[in-house]
Amino acid sequence: MKRLGILISGRGSNFLAIADAIAAGKLDAHIAVVISNRPDAPGLELARKRGLDAAALPSQGLDREVYDRQMIAELRGREVDLVCLAGYMRILSGHFIREFPGRILNIHPSLLPAFPGLDAQHQALAHGVKFSGCTVHFVDEGVDSGPIVKQAVVPVLDGDDAETLAERILKEEHRIYTESIALVLSGRYKIEGRRVLAANERE
Ligand code: GRF
Q1: Ligand 1 and 144: CB distance under 6 A
Q2: Going by C-beta distance under 8 Å and a sequence separation of 6 or more, which residues neighbour residue 23?
Q3: 139 in ligand 1 pocket by Cβ < 6 Å?
Q4: Does 116 lie in the same domain as 96?
Q5: Predicted local confidence at residue 202, as pLDDT
Q6: What region does 76 belong to: left with phi over 0, alpha with psi -120 to 50, or beta?
Q7: What CATH number does the domain containing 24 carry?
Q8: Residue 179 parent element (H or E)
């Protein structure tokens, strides 16, 4: 069974959605480890409660590449096949990305390439878009810039603030992250330029 390494920094609701999908038999994978760069991340406690291997690897004050080498060792030690960033608030070094070529996914709460970086929901409201959503993408050396695996659209309502919009987007995040992981683990896709194309079932 394919082994996931999930990196978090906070709440961990995307991690939980992945764990729930596995428990419900909707995703054929094993969570080999959940690692947080913040020792106080609530998601770590949730992972421990589920009996998962949950590790804190504090990043504060460490040089990016030094830290990433430690992280690589943790992931390699658990023979991780796919790295899933789930609210992981650190930019990865090129070194890390080259260690797991085409094997790192991220979830971002906007329809990329709109509103990359921090506070995507605030950015969407400030720009006045009528629709926003979320994106699962492969991670490359840019910020929120790799090939897109899946997106979901949600309406922005007149009464929204960043919190209500984030909540509506989060529901879709949980769905498309699990679906994207299943697709990538199945290997039934190809990447042409920036396009991730799911294989036709009949091919
Ligand atoms: C999500 O909105 C995700 O898209 C973004 O950070 C948030 C993490 O939420 N990258 P959670 O920790 O998975 O609940």
Answers
A1: no
A2: none
A3: no
A4: no
A5: 55
A6: alpha
A7: 3.40.50.170
A8: helix 162-186
- Both 70 and 147 in a single domain? no
> Same structural domain for residues 130 and 163?
yes
Ligand 1 centroid–CA 158 distance in Å is 23
Take residue 124 and report the two structure tokens written for it: 């969407």
101-160 pLDDT per residue, tens: 999 999 999 999 999 999 999 999 999 999 999 999 999 999 999 999 999 999 999 999
Query: What torsion, rounded to 10 degrees, do the Cα atoms 157, 145, 91, 150 define?
Result: 60
Q: Residue 16: give the domain boundaries.
A: 1-101
Q: Which amino acid is at 80?
A: V
108 is catalytic: yes
Q: Does ligand 1 lie within 6 Å of residue 42's CB atom?
A: no
88, 124: one domain: no
Residue whose CB lies within 8 A of the most ligand 1 atoms, among 121, 173, 180, for a mutation test: 173
